């Protein structure tokens, strides 16, 4: 059987940077060519080719003497007829807490930060409102499993900090803070590991990852947590059981159970 050819280095760098630009990671400008060469361990010609691809797509503007700045890419393209999976947390909550209790976590950073436009929009806050940003790496006996970034409104996160996040799953901490968890909106897609995530997950830069975004609401429909998770696909899989409801013409599938499997 023929094996697919590996992606050229410049294209892997282009894909990683494209995702970061779309996330708004470079509001102050992209790193210079030397910094990118060091970050990705490649030659200048490779970095320049990746940047040229981004410029060709209209994602960045390169201005001599002023550096490289991102341009507003607009919303990422979505497949026709798709929408985020919506589910009540019966089963999911228990599964996520169980996974948290059966793995170990290393807290990389916890800080109160000003919400970016995207975070504020998800959590229905004013841009710049204070939120707790926590970055963690979760591991099993086999090694690192996931790189998780969570955003929680500061008033909700007031009851827990670094030590609590190291000891308990964040959904338990939310409930202990008085939050009555209601439902979640979740998307699952694919991402490529940038240099920082690759280092923490013990993978080469540009490795494929499962990307999970989960917005948790309380019973009053208030967003209380916005999660960005990156998972090693060789150690994590996501299983859903679907039931068909309505008439045969409706063709509606409802998720009745969710399970995460890891090793």
Describe what this molecule looks like in 3D.
By secondary structure, the chain is of the alpha+beta class. 29% of the residues lie in helices and 37% in strands. It is built from nine helices and eleven strands. It has helices at residues 9-22, 33-40, 44-56, 92-101, 117-123, 154-157, 162-167, 170-176, 195-201; strands at residues 60-63, 67-70, 85-88, 104-114, 130-140, 143-153, 181-192, 208-218, 223-231, 236-245, 252-262. Strands 3-7-8-9-6-5-4 form a seven-stranded antiparallel beta sheet, with helices on both faces. α1 packs across α3 (44-56).
Topology of this protein?
Blueprint (H helix, E strand, L loop, with lengths): L8 H14 L10 H8 L3 H13 L3 E4 L3 E4 L14 E4 L3 H10 L2 E11 L2 H7 L6 E11 L2 E11 H4 L4 H6 L2 H7 L4 E12 L2 H7 L6 E11 L4 E9 L4 E10 L6 E11 L1
Antiparallel strand pairs: 1-2, 3-7, 4-5, 5-6, 6-9, 7-8, 8-9, 10-11
Helix pairs in contact: 1-3, 2-3
- Measured between the Cα atoms of the first and last residue, the distance is 28 Å
Q: Within the largest sheet, what's the order of strands?
A: 3-7-8-9-6-5-4
Beta-strand segment tally: 11
- What does the largest sheet look like? 7 strands, antiparallel
The geometry reads as globular
Uncertain stretches: 1-5, 76-95
Structural class computed from helices and strand pairing: alpha+beta
Topology pattern, helix = H, strand = E: HHHEEEHEHEEHHHEHEEEE
Helicity level, as a percent range? 25-40%
Question: DSSP strand (E) fraction?
Answer: 35-45%
Number of helices: 9
- State Rg: 20 Å
